[in-house]
Structures are given as C-alpha cells and as structure tokens.
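Appendix B, Record 12. Input sequence as logged:
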Amino acid sequence: MNNFELAFNFTFREEGGYINDPNDSGGETKFGISRATYPHLDISNLTAQQAKDIYYNDYWLDAQCDKMPFSIALSLFDFAFNSGLPNAAPILQITMGVSSDGIIGDQTLAAIDENKFLNYNTYRILYLIHRKNFNDYGKGWTGRVLRLVSYITLHGGAQ
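Logged structural output:
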C-alpha cells in the first residue's frame, strides 16, 4: 500500500460519515468534506471515491506530501485536512527551522527531517489548544493526533 492510501485510510476513518453539527463552522459535512469549503458539492450524496479524489488533489498534492517521508507526509496531510493548509504549513516550517511563509516549496522540502514528526505533532496539539472551540472539540482533536502518532509508528516504513 502506498503512502497516500495509508494516509487516506487514516484520515477517512477519523472523519466518519455524514454530519450536520450546528456548532461546526463547516456546516453540513460528509467524510470531512464540508459545505463551507465545497459549496458547489452535493454533500449528502458525496461518494467515498469523490471524497478520495478531493483528499488526493486538494490536500495530498497541494501540500506536496508526495515528496515527503511518510511520517511527515501523513502528519501534514491530516493537519491540513483537519485545520487547513494555511495553518498546517507554517507550523511545519517552524518545526523544520525554515522561513515560515506557508508555502511548501523547495526550501521546506529540503529541510524535512523525518525525526521531527513528533515535534510537529506536538506543535499541532499546541495549535489546537488555542482554538476558540477547543472546549467543545479538543478531546476529539487531541485523541486524533495521538491515534495518528500511533498509526505512523505502526506503519513507519511505508513508501
């Protein structure tokens, strides 16, 4: 199984099916794909394959995850999917010690150190703690990061 398939399997399972939580700013959501982000989609009839295509094109490829070691790729992918690439990318850059411009380019890719994946996920938790709705969703968010670290450890050598 390739890195994207492993990443997709993790994030897809975490996101679950259809919900329409009035407290969630994303509104109507299925497989983690929200009406707020994709207003042109029929969310309630979204298929798993359509969701997978969005995961791949709009998150995996946009975040340059195909050019990273598995531990960093999955960490960035899941963070970007859950909180947006504009939030996930600068934190990756800070973790890797490069200029934090939010653009995953050659400089960021060259600085990727797979050994820092735990640091990146720690920064992710710190980011989550400071979100205004942490009291409502924080337990689930932090549990997700811990499950992610466990999943990466289990599948560590994926390519």
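The radius of gyration is 15 Å.
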